[in-house]
Amino acid sequence: MPANILIIGATGVIGTPITAQVVSAKSSFGRIAILTSKNTVSSKAEVIKSLKEKGVEVLLGDLEVEADVKKAYENIDTVVSCVGRGAIEKQIQLIKWASETPNVKHFFPSEYGTDIEHNPSSVNEKPHQLKLKVRAYAKTIPKDKLHLTYLVTGPYSDLYMGKTGKEEIGTFDVKAKRAVLLGDGNGPVSFTAMADVGKLIVACIQQPSASEDKILIVNSFTATPNEILAEFEKQTNAKWEVSYTSLEKLKEVEKQAWEAGAPYATHATLRRIWTEGGTLYSKPRDNGLVGEPPMESLADQVRQVIAAQTRS
Ligand SMILES: NC(=O)c1ccc[n+]([C@@H]2O[C@H](COP(=O)([O-])OP(=O)(O)OC[C@H]3O[C@@H](n4cnc5c(N)ncnc54)[C@H](OP(=O)(O)O)[C@@H]3O)[C@@H](O)[C@H]2O)c1
């Protein structure tokens, strides 16, 4: 039976490429629907129009209202949640309602990031708290009521290799040919390109028995900041101006950011975790479990970042 899929948070940062990949594989699926708000339908009218033109059903509702969500769950077997950080905890209700809806069999909570159970100190990391709460709740749901799959992707290479508002937490500025690298630049980081997150979700839905009840640790490639810089220099055919934010300095910036309530505090913590080796896993990546879909390379990602920054 082809999967009938509901995507929640479909127009967000990662919801957009996930939805695009699901739509591009639509011949292998049944229905593709999104649950979104009235506000999004008016503020992102062009995006919604384009999704409808591609055959996506647009269901309106409030993800905090049980009747709206249960209506959206009608005849759906797979729910992919891509909600943003402001709605992570609200997934507890979304999972509860899914477990009460017999036709919903498989739920992907919004993770798509850092391994939140990486080591004993992970439990204390501020950005992980709500995702940990969701996992703890989900453990109470019997598997015969609902299967859950978490996709641990590490940082999105597209964003890591972009410009940041706060250069000290790392940046790659193509026009200025300037980079700020984290740590000593030699620490490997495991990345997933945003389009590849979508491809991996598609692969998980197509092979439910390989992905159900699992935390899948996936990636596109692993690279050090120095290797990323070398690829930018090669593709721009220029020597870049480089500085480094040591791990010690990054920790200071992180502490100050939280004390000041700065908007980049979460990013500073995540970048510190990645720089400390928090994306290096004790087991091989799980891409093979879902058929090893083709992934982007470091060179592909750098090419795309150069194109995007040159256009802007
Ligand atoms: N690995 C990485 O580098 C990385 C980077 C960024 C994010 N992430 C992770 O990816 C997941 C999705 O994050 P995102 O940045 O893609 O999300 P986002 O763009 O901020 O939001 C995604 C969607 O969530 C829905 N939403 C509804 N109520 C919300 C609320 N109160 N607060 C926030 N969102 C709400 C909205 O959907 P509608 O518009 O349809 O209503 C929104 O478009 C999160 O788990 C996040 O931690 C990982």
Automatic annotation (TrEMBL):
Superkingdom as given in the UniProt entry: Eukaryota
GO molecular function: oxidoreductase activity
PANTHER family for the chain: ISOFLAVONE REDUCTASE FAMILY PROTEIN (AFU_ORTHOLOGUE AFUA_1G12510), NMRA-LIKE FAMILY PROTEIN
Keywords of this entry: NADP, Oxidoreductase
The keyword Oxidoreductase belongs to this UniProt entry's keyword annotation: yes
Organism this protein belongs to: Amorphotheca resinae ATCC 22711
Domain NmrA-like: 4-253
Name used for this protein in its record: NmrA-like domain-containing protein
